[in-house]
Write a structure and sequence with these properties.
Elements lengths: L7 E14 L2 E10 L2 E8 L6 H9 L5 E10 L12 E10 L8
């Protein structure tokens, strides 16, 4: 696995895509910092509410965001990003520039 400095709070720009899988709501993000990209996901759970998914889905693409999450080894190779063997499991995401989306 890459030596990622993706722990704690990060300022990253992202592109997002919204998917539903097996009855669970999942939002996939592509986080970019300079030329490196990594897949990140936000999964509805006890800790992540439906409202948080809706909020995260309303953040404008290519926004600068603050992300807190855990870097984990990906179960499969990720072809769409430069980091192919790891992904970020998001615990918290918010716009960094104070441009809060409206629900």
């Amino acid at each position: 696995m890459h030596n990622l400095r993706l722990q704690g709070i990060l300022a990253l720009s992202f592109y997002r895509d919204v998917l539903t899988s097996a009855g669970s709501k999942i939002i996939f993000f592509e986080l970019r910092q300079q030329t490196d990209t990594v897949q990140a996901l936000l999964v509805q759970s006890k800790e992540i509410s439906k409202q948080m998914l809706k909020f995260a889905g309303s953040i404008t693409s290519e926004s600068i965001v603050l992300v807190r999450g855990t870097v984990k080894k990906s179960p499969i190779e990720i072809n769409a990003t430069t980091i192919k063997d790891a992904e970020v499991h998001i615990a918290e995401v918010q716009p960094a520039d104070g441009d809060t989306p409206h629900l």
